[in-house]
Amino acid sequence: MATRKKTAARKKSTKKTARKAPARKKTAKKAARKSAKKSSGKKRTPSAAFMRPVTPDNQLAAVVGSSPLPRTELTKKLWAYIKRNGLQDSKNRRAINADDKLRPVFNGKAQVSMFDMTKLVNKHVS
To answer: Considering the entire predicted model, what is its pTM?
Structure first.
């Protein structure tokens, strides 16, 4: 009996164990590039196309106002209106529910995703 146990133990110890591949380390070049990007000290300049004032049409002006304003400010005002009136869907936060003022901007749709909203709003500016 004792010999059986020894041979079984020997067989188990001679089995090859699966080795995990070693984790890759970042190379010195990648680390140097990342630190160079962070410490470049350049301030990011906004795109001139986003800063050029656009004029909203009458339907969009009911929501954000009729004065010409940059696209960035237009988007901020639109989101402020959506949040102030609680138009963001509670379950699906990507969906925007249209009220009476936003329905003409959204081409009569009752609900639009936030990604489609930007496409629809671009049709209402000049």
So the answer is: 0.63
